[in-house]
Design a protein that fits this description.
5-stranded antiparallel sheet; binds guanosine-5'-monophosphate; alpha+beta; single chain; 117 residues; 5 strands; HIT family, subunit A
Length: 117
C-alpha cells in the first residue's frame, strides 16, 4: 500500500521538513504549526498505519518506538525534567488531519488543560 499522505512524502523526502530525530524505524520532525515552544511529530518510517484504530497487535511495538524516540529527544534537548506531553489524535473528533499515524511531542512551557470540546 503506497503511503500518499503528506507524511509519506516527508519520509521519502519529496517535501521538506525540519528533521530532528531519525533511527531505523522512526522519523521525528518539527510541526509546521507549533502548538507549544517545542512541537515535534514522530512517525513510523516503514509501516503505513492511517490511524490508531488501524493498529494491528503485531504492529503494537511501533507505538513503543515512537514514545521512546520522543523521550530520548526530550532528554537530549534537556527538557525531560521540566516535562512534556505526548498526544496521538485518532480521526475526526480528535482533530486528526494527516492519516499516517503520528505522535505529537509538546513541551517548552506550562501546557494548558486539554480534552474539553
Ligand atoms: P493531526 O491533527 O493529524 O494530529 O496532526 C497533524 C499535524 O501535522 C498538525 O499539527 C499540523 O500542523 C502538521 N502539519 C500539517 N502539514 C504539515 C507539513 O507540511 N509539515 C509539517 N512539518 N507539519 C505539518
Amino acid at each position: 500500500m503506497t503511503n500518499d499522505t503528506l507524511f509519506g512524502k516527508i519520509i521519502r523526502r519529496e517535501i521538506p521538513a525540519t528533521v530532528v530525530y531519525e533511527d531505523d524505524e522512526v522519523l521525528g520532525f518539527k510541526d509546521i504549526a507549533p502548538q507549544a515552544p517545542v512541537h515535534v511529530l514522530f512517525i513510523p518510517k516503514n509501516l503505513y498505519i492511517p490511524t490508531l484504530d488501524d493498529l494491528k497487535p503485531d504492529q503494537a511495538w511501533i507505538i513503543g518506538k515512537l514514545v521512546l524516540a520522543a523521550a530520548e529527544y526530550a532528554r537530549g534537548e534537556g527538557f525531560a525534567q521540566d516535562g512534556y506531553r505526548v498526544v496521538m489524535n485518532c480521526r475526526e473528533h480528535a482533530g486528526q488531519t494527516v492519516f499516517h499515524i503520528h505522535l505529537h511531542l509538546l513541551a517548552g512551557a506550562q501546557l494548558g488543560h486539554f480534552g474539553t470540546p
